[in-house]
UniProtKB/TrEMBL annotation:
Residues 267-474 form the Histidine kinase/HSP90-like ATPase domain. One of its GO terms (biological process) is regulation of glucose metabolic process. Keywords: ATP-binding, Kinase, Mitochondrion, Nucleotide-binding, Phosphoprotein, Pyruvate, Transferase, Transit peptide. One of its GO terms (cellular component) is mitochondrial matrix. It comes from Westerdykella ornata. This is Protein-serine/threonine kinase. It is an enzyme of class 2 (transferase). SUPFAM superfamilies: alpha-ketoacid dehydrogenase kinase, N-terminal domain, ATPase domain of HSP90 chaperone/DNA topoisomerase II/histidine kinase. Its main location: mitochondrion. It is found in: Mitochondrion matrix. GO terms for molecular function: ATP binding; pyruvate dehydrogenase (acetyl-transferring) kinase activity. It comes from the Eukaryota. Its EC number is 2.7.11.-. Belongs to the PDK/BCKDK protein kinase family.
Length: 478
């Protein structure tokens, strides 16, 4: 399979931390082994104390407040200290949440590995937890810790998927969905905070000589593109999905973009790319399976103005919202910071959070609504109720197990599911999540994280409309 160029993805900056390469005037040497990092033993007291701290929802404004690159030394140190101030508690909450699962589930070697990974990452942060980063030398060492954290948790989703498949006799699908929805939403924030500092590090004034000049992008503030053009990402995702579709089935549906294709706003491009890829996979697959490949998939881009409540939040497909959260609001629940899922399973007292709801910014900010319309026949009524479940998939157990073992869906004889095997957020292996029913609920998690949402409306026998709403960061005067 040919590799597709992804020139607009900021992830390439973070990959540079993990894969040392010669830069224009220096060499990046962050890819050291785990054992080269200074660690401290994590005690139960450490976890209990940090997990008792309230978690304030993360906003896009938090990620741009340190300024537009290149950062000065003081701005870079401020970014490092902000990152350090919020990550230990977030890791501790995830450890506590895992420990609150039924013991036999946590004993599964794959779920236990995730627990160990969180312990390891917390052990690398604790030596920094009670100090302030005041020198560039310390900032470089701390950035190594962030690179290690991103690398350590790169395959969290696929490992958890394997663990819950093996432990499915001991935990209900409903509890699995509830736990994963919370846990994976929290993971989005943890990775985003770490990757933001990594990106700022390489575009900062003290370290910018370590970057190739052709990688500079004046619109980026870390992982946020303030000039993000949805049409550009849509065309890229269309090419990726279309090439796989044509390779496997000999045909590829055509995508038509209308509305305002030149519209730009500020958001995280790798989040939008993942969401669009997943939604196009579903649309392409339905279109091909329905024999309607000559009918175009229509994508409409519409600016979402300030103080606009016209676009629905994520829905259950019947025209009504599946969430009770007010529009444009970010909560600890939508960002997975509540630790409620696992405590409901065990009957323990849930951890209550403060500052439970804030808006993306002090004022409503511009954003975008993207409608994806296909003529693929729609979603059957019996499947509609389950589309947001992490455990819902058209694969059987044998096919799902072969997927997690690294075998592609077409190798298992189910060619029509090949489109499931082409994406994975946050460093996941491309085939690791195929057919496991993670794509749509994860897309919703990414959309809702900063106050957006996904709404699905299906006309059974005709087709499906998916409405994606994203809130931007607003105007950045830095």
């Amino acid at each position: 399979m040919a590799q597709v160029q992804r020139p607009f993805l900021i992830q390439s900056r973070c990959i540079r931390l993990l894969c040392p390469r010669q830069a224009s005037r220096g060499k990046v040497v962050f890819a050291r082994g785990r054992h080269s990092l200074h660690t401290r033993t994590v005690t139960d007291h450490d976890i209990a104390h940090l997990a008792s701290l309230p978690l304030h929802p993360l906003t896009l404004a938090d990620l741009v407040k340190h300024g537009r690159p290149p950062l000065t030394t003081q701005q870079l140190l401020s970014s490092a200290n902000f990152t350090l101030s919020i990550l230990p508690a977030r890791l501790a909450h995830r450890i506590k949440s895992l420990r609150n699962l039924p013991f036999i589930v946590v004993s599964n070697p794959h779920i236990s590995k995730i627990h160990s990974n969180y312990i390891h990452s917390l052990s690398t942060l604790l030596p920094w937890a009670e100090r302030e980063i005041t020198t560039l030398e310390d900032e470089v060492k701390f950035t190594e810790v962030m690179a290690d954290l991103v690398h350590t948790h790169s395959n969290t989703i696929s490992i958890l998927a394997r663990g819950f498949i093996e432990a499915r006799k001991y935990i209900s699908p409903k509890d699995v969905t509830r736990f994963l929805d919370e846990h994976l939403r929290a993971r989005i924030g943890t990775r985003l905070i770490a990757e933001q500092h990594l990106a700022l590090h390489f575009s900062s004034q003290p370290h910018k000589e370590m970057m190739h000049e052709d990688h500079a992008h004046p619109g980026f503030i870390g992982v946020i593109d303030t000039q993000l053009k949805p049409a550009r990402i849509i065309r890229h995702c269309e090419n990726v999905v279309g090439e796989i579709c044509e390779l496997n089935y000999g045909v590829r549906p055509h995508v038509v973009i209308n509305g305002e294709p030149d519209y730009t706003f500020a958001h995280v491009p790798m989040h939008l790319e993942y969401i669009i890829t997943e939604l196009l996979k579903n649309a392409f697959r339905a279109t091909v399976e329905g024999g309607m490949e000559k009918e175009p998939i229509e994508i409409t881009i519409a600016p979402l103005g300030t103080n606009s409540n016209s676009s629905p939040s994520s829905g259950n497909g019947d025209g009504h919202s599946a969430r009770t959260t007010p529009d444009e609001t970010i909560t600890n629940q939508t960002q997975g910071n509540t630790d409620v899922a696992s405590t409901n399973i065990t009957g323990a007292t849930p951890t209550l959070q403060t500052d439970d709801a804030i808006r993306p910014l002090e004022h409503s900010t511009p954003g975008v609504t993207i409608r994806i319309r296909d003529r693929g026949g729609g979603i059957s009524p019996e499947n509609m109720e389950r589309i947001w479940d992490y455990s819902f998939t058209t694969f059987n157990d044998e096919e799902a197990t072969s997927t997690l073992n690294g075998q592609s869906p077409q190798d298992s004889g189910n060619g029509m599911d090949a489109l499931n095997a082409i994406s994975g957020p946050g460093g996941e292996r491309k085939h690791s999540l195929a057919g496991l029913g993670y794509g749509l609920p994860l897309s919703r998690a990414y959309a809702e994280y900063f106050g957006g949402g996904i709404h699905v409306q299906s006309l059974w026998g005709w087709g499906t409309d998916v409405y994606l709403k994203l809130r931007g960061v607003g105007r950045v005067d830095v």
